[in-house]
Design a protein that fits this description.
Length: about 160
């Protein structure tokens, strides 16, 4: 039986999206949009309270274990938007960062085994947990937000 593209897709479920896929790209992170593997905070698990984002820990399963992380977007009254990644780096240690790589603004991943944040895009910039760009510490750092724990909530000071 002769196979054409349609029968190949039907039998395998695999579609070839273009001959350019997989080829090296020389334009860097502006054209390769990395996606973070960090889960998005569940609806209703966080809210803005007196200039801080209050995160309800029981409603945020990805922060239950050390090594977990969560991300969220917040829209302020003035129309500004902030994207955050919050990580649990030790038993009772939580840290929050702007989820925006200093290179081209792509999302970050938390690599607990190495205690770093790594850009999800092509350039893969890595930052330590103080927000410092490891390869060139004098370059721009990730924005870090202060986090305090109050009972079952985390308060991330964003304003
Ligand atoms: S966007 Fe290029 S290294 Fe992060």
């Amino acid at each position: 039986m002769k196979h054409n593209r349609r029968t190949f897709i039907k039998k395998t479920g695999i579609a070839i999206v273009g001959v350019g896929a997989g080829l090296p790209c020389f334009s860097g992170c502006s054209t390769i949009a990395g996606r973070s593997a960090v889960p998005v905070a569940p609806t209703g698990s966080f809210k803005l309270v007196n200039g801080a984002i209050s995160i309800d820990l029981p409603m945020t399963p990805s922060l239950r274990e050390t090594g977990g992380a969560v991300k969220m977007s917040v829209l302020f009254d003035n129309g500004e938007k902030a994207k955050l990644i919050v990580v649990r780096s030790d038993t009772d240690v939580y840290k929050a960062f702007e989820d925006r790589c200093t290179h081209k603004g792509r999302e970050m991943n938390f690599i607990h085994e190495e205690d770093i944040l790594r850009c999800s895009s092509f350039g893969r910039r890595e930052f330590d947990l103080s927000g410092t760009f490891i390869e060139r510490p004098d370059d721009e750092s990730l924005k870090v937000f202060s986090v305090t724990k109050e009972g079952d909530s985390l308060l991330v000071a964003v304003v």
